[in-house]
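pinned: reference chain
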Amino acid sequence: MVDINRGTTGVDLPPAVSNEIWGGIVEQSAVMQAARRINLPGAGVSIPLVTGEPTAGWVDETDEKPVSRHTLNNKTMTPYTLAVIEPFSNQFRRDLPALYAELARRLPFALAKTFDSTVYGATTAPGSNFDQLTGAPTLTVDGTDTFADLAAVLNAVAAQGASLSHWIASPALHGLMLTATDQLGRQFFVNDPAGSSRVGSVFGAPVLLTRGTMPSGTGATDDKIGYAGDWAGSAVYGTVEGVRISISDQATLTDGEDTINLWQRNMFAVRAEIEVGFRVRDVNHFVSLNDGTAES
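pinned: its structure tokens
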């Protein structure tokens, strides 16, 4: 074991730094902002899911009341490890505040981007108990009539008995929302066209901008530009214990085809990792949005 870790004198990270990195991951991840969070045991957990509601009925006086029940199911949420190692020069060790600031700035983006990209289906799932939205119904938003296209998405979610709680938008989808206009040329989804460059909500549901990679189209398949659906009610993610940080200046890193000996190069590396899982109640409670442009 390499004796350079969080307990080693001179290079330990204060707990506030790990908390700041975790807070940064949630802030950078559109999925984590939209979905519900649970605490996830290391061995995983079985999540009960309500798949159907009881039905009430009108009855006349003295008639028997109807009997109806919820329908239930469950899914197992398994924690999978998401990690990144970043090497630094030893100048950062000399000036630790710079290291803390750099960790808090860089690492949340890397972890959040990969997590979101996996949920969208652009990155391979870590295991069978991690859900992806690749099977969600697809609708096109191509800019010809953005208002009608987004209204169709809203109706599609409602037709499944769900409520559209959030729009997760790529820069391309956000641009279409931003430039959607009525017959008089007024922007539909911008409250203050003169002073705002953001669409805060569409049909009452918040718009979250994502930096995660969307799946690319192949052949006649369009590129994904966003996902809308019942994120608040039908999506859940869990973490075991937030972010774990480890530091080493004696390890040897494998970076693609290159090998980096940290001690030989007077460097050190920081490893950040989280154990996280993701599940959805019903993939039909979501809609994937395509750009309407067939790939050649």
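why pinned: The longest strand covers residues 235-248. The two ends are 52 Å apart (CA to CA).
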